[in-house]
Each structure stands twice: as structure tokens, then as C-alpha cells.
Amino acid sequence: MRDLPQMLKVYAHARELMARNGNPTQWGNTFPRESVVRDDIANQRTMLLVDMKDGHERILAQFALCPGEDPTYARIDGAWLDDDTYVTIHRIASSGLVRHAARDCITWALKHYGNVRADTHPNNKAMQHVLETSGFARCGLIQLLDRPTDTTRIAYQRHEW
């Protein structure tokens, strides 16, 4: 919980970057809400990529790692690679301090869990590039369950066999 203020700054930075790069609606001005970030921390879903500089820890990137079946992924216009157990990466954001931080988070998740799913907004070309160059397959389209508008997302999966 001590990292919460910095995590909120990282998400604010990510929202600004997405808006500047043609994706102003995926997270708008408020997502992820502080209550969601607190819930991720409380339920031990928060993953931080950190380093040390001048004796101080810095958050380079963060994401929620969600084990178990994701209800949003139950219906897909397309097909998942398999029905095996998986983890989902949600709410990934880079602080902008180093290059490839999001990719490093994804690499870590694949190394530790093997079967990983994720989704992103059709306008989020940067995340699509990161997922596709990390070996993820574009599986189809899903609809978010927790938002009233702008809910279509591109679904991805990578399974280390």
C-alpha cells in the first residue's frame, strides 16, 4: 500500500500518453479508479517492475496479474488457443523511465505462468505491438463487462507449450 501514490502517478502518466497517441477513451481520465488499484493490492494481484537508482527504488511498470477464469473472456468473437488454465494481465502501465518495461512485465508473466491472456483497446497500437512482438496471437474480440461504453477489446493469448 505504501506504493499506492506512485502507482496512481504511473497510471496518470499512462492515460496522458495514450491520449497523446490517439487512444483517449480506453482509460479516459479516471481508469483505473483508485478503488480498483487498492483492490488489486489488497488481493495480491499487483505486480511491480522496479529498479534502484541513487539508493531509491523506482517503479518502472506495473500490472494486475489475475489468476483463474476471467468472466470477460467467457465469450469471444473468435477463439482462444486452448481452454487450459491461464492468468490474465490487466492494467499494465509503464512509468516512462526506461524502454521496454511493459515487455519485461509480459516476459516475466510468461516465464512464471506459461499461459497468459490479455486484451487491449483497438486504438492502443502501442500495446498491440508489444503483445504481437512478444509472440501473442490475436484471438478475436471480447466485450468488457464492467463499463457501459467503448467496451470492444482485442483479445490475445500466448501459451508456452
TrEMBL record:
GO terms for molecular function: transferase activity. Keywords: Transferase. InterPro entries: Acyl_CoA_acyltransferase. The keyword Transferase applies. The keyword Transferase applies. It comes from the Bacteria. This is N-acetyltransferase. It comes from Bifidobacterium platyrrhinorum. The lineage of its organism: Bacteria, Bacillati, Actinomycetota, Actinomycetes, Bifidobacteriales.
